[in-house]
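Minutes, structural biology subgroup

Action item carried over from last meeting: produce the structure token record for PiggyBac transposable element-derived protein 3 (Trichonephila clavata). EB confirmed the sequence was re-checked against the source entry. Recorded below for completeness.
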Amino acid sequence: MPYETILTIEAKPCRIKKICTCCTRWACLDFLIYTGADTVPVEDKQLYGFGGAVVKHLVGTIPTVKVTHLFTDRYFTGLAILDYLVRRNVYLTGTVMTNRTDDVAESFPKDTCMERGSSVS
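Output recorded by EB:
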């Protein structure tokens, strides 16, 4: 089984949120139930933000022998957690919010100057 994973968050009508790590075949590898402010350790939340702390918790169960590719949405993506993941042999692909880039995003071309479907490397 490849170790490519996807983080998803689902809100159900009963207001229970679960955050899952799934493989490419959508089998759930690990999950975390949101229980409020104490869902993740305070130290991790201060270092990585809530989304990054969730990623750190869920990636802890993935073997680091092989390279792992993690795909997240913008809530779970940030520079601090990227540094942690690279040390664990995990590479992340995700949308980045400009306020989480420590002004690195200002060096990127503006959306209006780019062609549809192009990316910044």
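Discussion: The chain is about 20% helix and 25% strand.
Next step: EB to file the record with the rest of the batch.
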